[in-house]
Fold this protein.
Amino acid sequence: MTYETVLYDVSDHIATITLNRPDRLNAITSQLQKDLFDAMHRAEENEDVRVIILTGAGRGFCAGADMKGLDETSNKDWSDVSDEEWVKGNCKEHPRDDARIDFQKTNSYFPAITKPILGAINGACVGLGFVLPLYCDIRFASDTARFGTAFAQRGLIAEHGISWMLPRLIGISNSFDLLYSARLINADEALRMGLVSRVIPQDTFIDEVREYATHLATKVSPRSLRLIKKEIYNALFQTLAEAIDAANLDMAGSFSCEDFKEGVAHFIEKREPHFTGK
């Protein structure tokens, strides 16, 4: 299956999803959102995939919402749209019982994907394009990457849960700074804020991201990754006691799983692991 606006590739247990509108710096359209949503769930359902990389084609990651669409939106009469329709309209028609409703919204569904998602930010990352990597589990930046919220410069607000997620990543003051000013920051400042985990030279960027992804895909248990991801995101809504109780239940199941037995065996036998995810 191919997509209009996204490239999808699977190799060595890694699914690479590439936003593919390079002539528009991968600006987001409704079709791109649909293609991305489908590709993410396709990777989740593929048993051969253990890690997902999200990146952009060409010299940008994502320049935000497509300006043609924004122009049409700015000239539309929105007075007859009710509050209920606004909220309902921002929910994906893909209900699932294994994830909180918080992680089933239009742009907040990445945490519900049960596999690690690595944001490989290769260039401009602005506006709605800034929102996407916030919901990735780990963010890597090329040294050519630039980041900006843009919303206040367009007369808009902190969109798609960014007011909830961004302070948890970089703190309240840094969040106000980026949202109030809408200024662009470079990769080094993003690293200092904690917005990204690592800055990598552009020449070796995707190779180093894939090297990390390969480590996750081959050296650790897919089952452990799946449960750790669930625990981390659920804990954002839990007390410490609730998080401990949930982890204890997960630990009980781990003791009888195949990956636990393999995890002990490969260490004792001093060999490479062969995890199955079970």
In short: Confidence is low (pLDDT under 50) at residues 86-90. The longest helix spans residues 30-45.
